[in-house]
């Protein structure tokens, strides 16, 4: 039997739980706004730009991602234990969650649609080079790829390569270059 | 019967969808509402049990999991959890949706809650483990058979041999936690697998790391 449309069922559940005092629509509003505005990939971009400009911070970030990220004020749900891995000209990390869509919310926000897509979840652990090419990233044959499947509560963040020719840019300018896709490992940062 | 959510290495999905610039976090308004209802609603059962939520996702039918999108799947999973713990009646959501559409239907009365008698021993999923880890960096381990659901052992590494790359902090065990049956803290290992070990000699060369709970692996 066909159920009523999902948007209507969402409204129905919200009403039912509100009537029972189990959720508060105003709290829901604030929660939604937080993930629409405050918690997103700009947080991760600040972490990356700091690591590119401050070698001691980079070292701390790679040794204990959670603590180094908290130094910049970012923590919260889905960020209990964040491990940062570095991409280099010869080693490339790319992140997936094959079992669900686990993702480091405090630094990247909620996952984009392609990350939640069954095709990405199924295929990137089987044929990553081809998947990355379909995503727009063509890696040279000699680059070693490591796919990070987030199958427990470890959340993986990629520290992308700093692009050549950006030596004169300030930390603030660099923040603007860093993309979400580079921090998941399906893109490089363009200068 | 494979669990619906265990997609790693499976075939038949077609091309991936390249990133769209400036994709909104919630393309439709209801998706944000469903997200908030799922996160806040699951917190009304017994702790905010993410493993129980994932197990609810894993028990959805094909339509409820795949055809209503990511946040549709979240809505359906939290509804299942709320029904199973007696917080709402099985038909309550559909009946109210019909009422909202202007169709007069009788709504079922609220049931007696049967929430699991369970409280987490701490926030989040990380826990201290009393015993030292059985394996260290560089040890070779073989992954066991996929246990009965719920579990977070992905099928595509079952029976395969990999090398421990990192010993991660201890976690509560999803297999029992998802059922509100105890935390059973475990060591978790990031295990590196060669693609040829997973898919045969003809596989393109790469590595996959999978974060595996202590009870999923044995010495290889």
From TrEMBL, chain A:
SUPFAM superfamilies registered for this protein in UniProt: Nitrile hydratase alpha chain
Catalytic class of the enzyme: lyase
Nitrile hydratase alpha/Thiocyanate hydrolase gamma domain ranges (all copies): 7-187
Which Enzyme Commission number(s) are listed? 4.2.1.84
In the record, which residues are listed under signal peptide? none
Offer an example of a GO molecular function term for this protein: transition metal ion binding
**What chemistry does it catalyse, as a reaction equation?**
an aliphatic primary amide = an aliphatic nitrile + H2O
UniProt superkingdom: Bacteria
Binding of Fe(3+) occurs at 97, 100-102
The UniProt keyword set, sorted, is: Iron, Lyase, Metal-binding
Question: Has UniProt tagged this entry with the keyword 4Fe-4S?
Answer: no
Sorted alphabetically, which InterPro entries does this protein's record hold? CN_Hdrase_a/SCN_Hdrase_g_sf, CN_Hdrtase_a/SCN_Hdrlase_g, CN_Hdrtase_asu/SCN_Hdrlase_gsu, Nitrile_hydratase_asu
Q: Which family does it belong to?
A: Belongs to the nitrile hydratase subunit alpha family.
Its recorded name reads nitrile hydratase
Q: Which organism is the protein's source?
A: Pseudonocardia oroxyli
TrEMBL record, chain B:
Please state what the protein is called. Answer: Nitrile hydratase subunit beta
Instruction: List, for all copies, the residue spans of the domain called Nitrile hydratase beta subunit.
Output: 127-218
Q: Where is the Nitrile hydratase beta subunit-like N-terminal domain?
A: 1-106
Q: What class of enzyme is it?
A: lyase
EC number(s) reported in the record: 4.2.1.84
- Read off the InterPro entries from this record: CN_hydtase_beta-like_N, CN_hydtase_beta_C, CN_hydtase_beta_dom_C, Elect_transpt_acc-like_dom_sf, Nitrile_hydratase_bsu
Query: Which NCBIfam families does the record match to this protein?
Result: nitrile_beta
Keyword terms, alphabetized: Lyase
Reactions it catalyzes: an aliphatic primary amide = an aliphatic nitrile + H2O
């Amino acid at each position: 039997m066909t159920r009523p449309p999902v948007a209507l069922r969402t409204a129905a559940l919200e009403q039912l739980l509100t009537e029972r005092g189990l959720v508060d629509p105003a709290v829901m509003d604030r929660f939604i706004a937080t993930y629409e505005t405050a918690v997103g990939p700009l947080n991760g971009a600040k972490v990356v730009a700091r690591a590119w400009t401050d070698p001691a911070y980079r070292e701390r970030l790679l040794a204990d991602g959670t603590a180094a990220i908290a130094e910049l004020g970012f923590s919260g749900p889905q960020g209990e234990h964040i491990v940062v891995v570095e991409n280099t000209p010869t080693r490339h990390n790319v992140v997936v969650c094959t079992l669900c869509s686990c993702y480091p919310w405090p630094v990247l926000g909620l996952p984009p649609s392609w990350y939640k897509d069954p095709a990405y979840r199924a295929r990137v652990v089987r044929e990553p080079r081809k998947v990355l090419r379909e995503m727009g990233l063509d890696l040279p044959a000699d680059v070693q790829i490591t796919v990070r499947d987030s199958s427990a509560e470890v959340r993986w963040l990629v520290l992308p390569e700093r692009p050549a020719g950006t030596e004169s840019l300030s930390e603030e300018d660099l923040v603007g270059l860093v993309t979400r896709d580079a921090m998941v490992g399906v893109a490089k940062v363009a200068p | 019967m494979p669990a619906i959510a265990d997609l790693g290495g499976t075939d038949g999905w077609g091309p991936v969808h390249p990133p769209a610039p400036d994709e909104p976090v919630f393309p439709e308004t209801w998706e944000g509402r469903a997200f908030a209802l799922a996160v806040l609603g699951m917190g009304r059962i017994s702790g905010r049990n993410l493993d129980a939520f994932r197990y609810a996702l894993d028990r959805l039918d094909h339509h409820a999991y795949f055809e209503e999108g990511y946040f549709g799947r979240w809505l359906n999973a939290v509804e299942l959890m709320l029904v199973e713990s007696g917080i709402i009646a099985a038909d309550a959501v559909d009946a109210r949706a019909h009422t909202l559409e202007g169709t007069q239907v009788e709504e079922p009365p609220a049931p007696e809650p049967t929430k699991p008698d369970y409280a987490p021993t701490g926030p989040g999923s990380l826990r201290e483990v009393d015993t030292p880890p059985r394996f260290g960096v560089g040890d070779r381990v073989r992954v066991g058979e996929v246990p009965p659901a719920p579990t977070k052992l992905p099928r595509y590494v079952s029976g395969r041999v990999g090398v421990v790359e990192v010993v991660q902090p201890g976690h509560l065990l999803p297999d029992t936690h998802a059922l509100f049956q105890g935390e059973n803290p475990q060591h978790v290992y990031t295990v590196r697998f060669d693609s040829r070990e997973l898919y045969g000699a003809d596989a393109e060369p790469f590595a996959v790391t999978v974060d595996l709970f202590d009870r999923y692996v044995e010495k290889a």
